[in-house]
């Protein structure tokens, strides 16, 4: 069967291209739809359907633009209530793509409309299942997102529905079916996803904690909800964009590609209240940056961090980028719904300096220098990594202030003496330091190279020890 996974690593997102006899379908497309259209043209195929597994929270789908450009029909799962024309499928409804069939399997739990698509080849053999966020490799979808949209839903109720969907709809299927999920490791839509992006259903039944044959519904709910963190704040806004519609990608690109001179850039920031994002490498930001700008590097998990830290997708944005990457920044912002980009600094940061504009720097030291200072500064170290990283191993006296929730920890940082921040490699700590500086906390020192470099020094560390039970 001809099915191709189109994976976008920075979002840990998988879309799918299916083609047979000149007809094609796209499942869960990203915002920029050009690559899907080009892929279909290579096969001289017409895109017939756009299948959505659910209303996504972590990105804005390209379903509306793809429909507009190709005439394809949007297919959504049962109970979906979009604000635009679409086929709201019935459970077990079958769609044809050339000689292939796609069968709708309603699998509520991650969201109420969540749907798995069973792929059947030209010989009527069941080939695989596109599971969306219902079933991942190594995990299942988090059940707390839809409660942000529908008032009478709880995560416990959704988790119970997901248990039923998995037990009664997915697990009875053939073990040799290939699982095609919507996300891989790194996505905030689950908590234990594998780096692998496909697997067989039979293997997942053996290794996926959520598919244990002897698991009760109560055990499933408890294990699924255990350790589940608050989802990023932009998630509900992306859901509503996917339900209600949005401005076309082409219009967003057209209005956002505005080069601004340094003086105009400064005026725009002051007049609009725009947040200035510096997307260059952290080493460049450290050496010099526009005052009060926030660093979120384009070469890291850029879009998810923008969503998690800025949250409001309507917030006006300005950005600073190395020449030639302006379009890339706008595309990646639009993927998570940040369409209100009002321009970028023409000529980059060097142009800012050339006209004599004021700039700031970030105090940053090596891991070796930090090791020398550590004995006198044990209570002034802040670890901004994720909880799992911190629990696995950390500097003995470091305080845990995860970057995801740094705005909830602002009062914990000293105001009148120097303190240190670190992450794993130096990317997230510079983000954290830039946010602190933008809030007027300038007595922050970044540890270059992060924990990876600190491990090679004599700074004492605390390893997580799993408790044992004596019998």
From TrEMBL:
The keyword Cytoplasm does not apply. Keywords: Hydrolase, Metal-binding. It comes from the Bacteria. Pfam families: Lactamase_B (PF00753), Rhodanese (PF00581). Residues 270-361, 375-463 form the Rhodanese domain. One of its GO terms (molecular function) is metal ion binding. One of its GO terms (biological process) is hydrogen sulfide metabolic process. SMART domains: Lactamase_B, RHOD. This is MBL fold metallo-hydrolase. It comes from Psychroserpens burtonensis.
